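Good morning,

Attaching, inline, the backbone tokens for the sequence recovery test we're adding to the shared suite. The designed sequence is right after.
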């Protein structure tokens, strides 16, 4: 495709294609760990909250239907990467948190993804990478979106 092609100017198309390229690269990097992008994302968010995070909140953070998150948590739990405990503030809810093994795998997964995706971004300056990251965070995590504790998601 050339820069003068109409799709080369279509932000939705470009974001979708970039997402596909990054997701494929990340999934290939995560495969030796038995993870895919979605399961890694759930593991990463579960690792961030020491006390755990509800499955409903995980669904919001990852942008998936809650039933999809239940299946991902089931897989991660079966692999010993996360555990579910009853939420002490709402006994009807379960909190998902990373196990020690899960935290270790999350760290390794992050390193693998960064290394693999570094090749995609090799010709992009660090300044442009930082700017692109900031712009995408604005789209994905608008200022109005907040965590349960009221802090902004960054």
């Amino acid at each position: 495709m050339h820069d003068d092609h109409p799709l080369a100017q279509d932000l939705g198309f470009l974001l979708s294609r970039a997402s596909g390229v990054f997701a494929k690269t990340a999934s290939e990097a995560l495969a030796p760990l038995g993870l895919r992008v979605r399961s890694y994302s759930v593991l990463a968010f579960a690792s961030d909250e020491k006390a755990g995070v509800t499955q409903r909140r995980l669904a919001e953070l990852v942008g998936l239907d809650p039933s999809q998150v239940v299946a991902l948590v089931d897989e991660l739990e079966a692999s010993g990467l996360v555990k579910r405990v009853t939420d002490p503030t709402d006994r009807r809810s379960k909190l998902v948190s990373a196990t020690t093994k899960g935290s270790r795998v999350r760290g390794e997964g992050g390193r693998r993804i960064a290394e693999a995706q570094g090749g995609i971004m090799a010709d992009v300056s660090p300044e442009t990478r930082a700017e692109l990251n900031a712009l995408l965070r604005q789209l994905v995590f608008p200022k109005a979106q907040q965590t349960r504790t009221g802090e902004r998601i960054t």
